[in-house]
């Protein structure tokens, strides 16, 4: 690809998105520039504090348990209180809890505060995803999620290299640095981002069942969506090994935190380089095939780690599963939004994020136990099995899903030009039918998604 063509692709990728999206994108970048705890917690506990891989896995699992708790609570908060208040509360409390974790000495205190960090640091995810769906037009959402994922990995690439060096001198500096940047992210949200939550039209003449209340029971009874959540859990179990199993295995093989930081930074750098051209290539392709291929690449990319010896071989395996990330993340996020009714986006995103949170709970326990008892090779073989199962699941689940993206269905009226100060109006303002049109069209496009909100009244809206 020529340089001129690449520049053209970049311009096409960033054009036409509202200003509010770019402030949200900037907040994501600032937040990820400070990423330290999730990446280096295992090395901090095993190399700096001298704990076993099993204890490190337990602490990281408690961090994941916090995410399980906050995913559902934050999803409800996102729909009830709004996207902006949820993000502000989550980021402010994360800054405090991360700083506190750096000063903990007793094992029980470390475990307890790690749980708190898990609760706070995961609470903003449903709000961020819901706001992005609110302010971006349906036909631009895969591109928007891809650009946001690009920001995540740009920040991660920089922070992983910097934190790897910082960790060799002072882990505390890493904790405090993450706290400071997370607080800066909260300030940016407070100053620059307006609320985007769509409001229900106060039209008394509308039939009572036109916009039914949506509770967590509604989400859990949505068969196809929960199938996507289950497959996302398998994928998450694989990708989590990049920050759990991989550092333990590399540490046991004699590599330093700086070596691990260099290798895993390649993940972020590769995404920064390839995310835009790959997104251009996959944006209008069949999501079934993309998700099947990405699941296989993820599983067998990690499985190749069993054969890695020198540092460059570890870096090569990272390149394989990084390509899976590049394809899987925006494709799956676009699918989740397509299956989510407008006024239930927070709850749907919360349940979707639950798959990653539960994986963050289970994967460290599994990795620590398997590595301590049987060695890392069995762990890498298990990732290959999980990738194969996930690929088969995507193929079966999405056989009836039509090719193309949500924009092809014609629901472009939902977000419109979500612009600057008028985000809430553009994202489903009172007096328009955009919200209902999107929910109805998304259900129709999704085939057998069966987003049935009516049973929520009987189950009780959470």
What does this protein structure show overall?
The chain has 462 residues and is mostly helical. Helix content is 73%, strand content 0%. Helix 5 (83-101) packs antiparallel against helix 7 (125-135), helix 11 runs antiparallel to helix 17 and helix 16 (345-374) packs antiparallel against helix 17. The chain is globular, with a radius of gyration of 21 Å. The termini are far apart. Mean pLDDT is 77; it is low at 204-211 and 403-462.
Structure summarized in a few sentences:
By secondary structure, this protein is mostly helical. It has helices spanning 3-14, 19-33, 37-48, 53-80, 83-101, 107-122, 125-135, 141-167, 171-192, 216-220, 223-239, 245-252, 257-282, 287-303, 311-338, 345-374, 376-397, 423-426, 434-445, 456-459.
Structural class comes to mainly alpha
The largest sheet, given as strand count, sense and whether it forms a barrel, is: none
- Report the principal-axis shape: globular
User: Low-confidence parts lasting 5 or more residues at pLDDT below 50?
Assistant: 204-211, 403-462
β-strand number: 0
Helix-strand pattern, N to C? Answer: HHHHHHHHHHHHHHHHHHHH
User: How large a portion of the residues is in β-strands, by DSSP E?
Assistant: under 5%
The percentage helix is: over 70%
Q: End-to-end distance, in Å? A: 51 Å
Give the C-alpha Rg: 21 Å
Mean pLDDT across every amino acid position = 77
How many helices in DSSP terms?
Answer: 20
């Amino acid at each position: 690809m020529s340089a001129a063509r690449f520049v053209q692709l970049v311009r096409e990728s960033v054009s036409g998105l509202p200003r509010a999206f770019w402030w949200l994108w900037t907040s994501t970048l600032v937040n990820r520039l400070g990423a330290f705890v999730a990446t280096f917690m295992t090395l901090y506990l095993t190399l700096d504090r001298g704990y076993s891989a099993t204890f490190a896995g337990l602490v990281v699992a408690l961090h994941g348990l916090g995410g399980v708790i906050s995913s559902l609570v934050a999803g409800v908060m996102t729909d009830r209180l709004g996207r902006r208040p949820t993000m502000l509360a989550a980021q402010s409390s994360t800054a405090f809890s991360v700083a506190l974790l750096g000063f903990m000495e007793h094992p029980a205190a470390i475990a307890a505060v790690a749980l708190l960090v898990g609760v706070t640091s995961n609470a903003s995810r449903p709000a961020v995803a819901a706001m992005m769906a609110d302010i971006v037009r349906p036909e631009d959402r895969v591109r928007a999620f891809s650009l946001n994922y690009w920001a995540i990995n740009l920040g991660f690439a920089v922070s992983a290299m910097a934190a790897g060096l910082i960790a060799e001198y002072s882990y505390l500096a890493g904790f405090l640095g993450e706290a400071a940047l997370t607080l800066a992210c909260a300030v940016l949200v407070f100053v620059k981002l307006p609320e985007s939550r769509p409001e229900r039209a106060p039209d008394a003449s509308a039939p009572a069942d036109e916009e039914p209340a949506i509770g967590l029971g509604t989400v859990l009874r949505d068969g196809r969506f929960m199938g996507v959540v289950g497959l996302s859990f398998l994928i998450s179990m694989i990708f989590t090994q990049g920050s759990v199993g991989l550092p333990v295995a590399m540490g046991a093989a004699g590599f330093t935190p700086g070596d691990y930081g260099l290798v895993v930074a390649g993940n972020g750098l590769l995404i920064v380089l390839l995310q835009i051209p790959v997104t251009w290539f996959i944006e209008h392709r069949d999501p079934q095939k993309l998700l099947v291929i990405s699941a296989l690449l993820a599983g067998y990319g990690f499985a190749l780690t069993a054969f890695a010896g020198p540092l460059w071989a570890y870096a090569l395996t990272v390149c394989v599963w990084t390509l899976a990330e590049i394809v899987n993340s925006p494709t799956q996020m676009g699918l989740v939004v397509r299956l989510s009714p407008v006024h239930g986006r927070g709850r749907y995103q919360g349940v979707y994020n639950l798959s990653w949170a539960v994986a963050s709970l289970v994967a460290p326990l599994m990795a620590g136990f398997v590595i301590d008892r049987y060695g890392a090779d069995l762990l890498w073989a298990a990732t290959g099995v999980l990738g194969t199962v996930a690929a088969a699941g995507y193929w079966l689940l999405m056989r009836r899903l039509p090719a193309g993206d949500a924009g092809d269905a014609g629901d472009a009226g939902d977000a419109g030009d979500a612009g600057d100060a008028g985000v809430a109006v553009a994202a489903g303002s009172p007096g328009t039918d955009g919200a209902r049109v999107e929910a109805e069209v998304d259900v129709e496009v999704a085939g057998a998604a069966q987003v049935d909100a009516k049973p929520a009244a009987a189950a009780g809206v959470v």
